[in-house]
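I hope you will forgive my troubling you with a question about protein structure. The record follows directly beneath this note:
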Amino acid sequence: MHRTPAVMLLAAALAASAGCADVEGLRSEGDLGTVHAPRTLWKNIRPAPPEPGQQPGAAAVVPGLPKVADLSMRGVDTLDVVRADITAATAQDGGTGRLVDPRAVQRLALCTQAVDGGPDCPVRPRVLHDLTGDGREELITALDIDGRLSELRVYTVRDDGSIARVLSRRAVLEGVEVAAEHLAVREPSSNPEYVAVSDYVWDHDAGSMSLEQLTLDECRAVPDAPLSGDRSPCAR
């Protein structure tokens, strides 16, 4: 799989502006235009800092859930966790959509008391994978909102048995991949030839999954294999 980081694209652009080299040294490609310094737009306008608890990716204990005695996610009900998390986040952000899509609660109402939530439940089958490196598996799932947009969630069990959300991400999930202690989220970009890949890793100090790298990938994920434990092949 060939990834094209933004720095590689920048390097290619710089190479084009500098001209080409051959055995005789540098040769001019002609007038490529005047190079201008970047122009800063709206430099006097800055966003207000987020209020406490209003950061979408911040880790937080999910309220209203019993503690897990054996510290394992295997016996935890995925729907119970997602319901508790979505309900709390909706109440916290007051329906503004900063923490969770305002339609999420209505979508969850489609889930029944069946083990898998029933045929209309928009919560994806869970995946268990150790992302923190402590030997305990995290719970990875997603709530599909409208057939395109989804709320991706990752939960862990802390040492005291409480369940905490360590990653929340609203995205168009073209693909989600796990490998070792990495979770990669693949999303469409403005260029149909590429997908944007956000690589998250465990940040021990923050107690959450943090973005480590953002790249562009020429390979597109297989659409019918979300949240797979295997690396997706290229699909042209």
Notes: Residues 1-26, 228-236 have pLDDT under 50 and may be disordered.
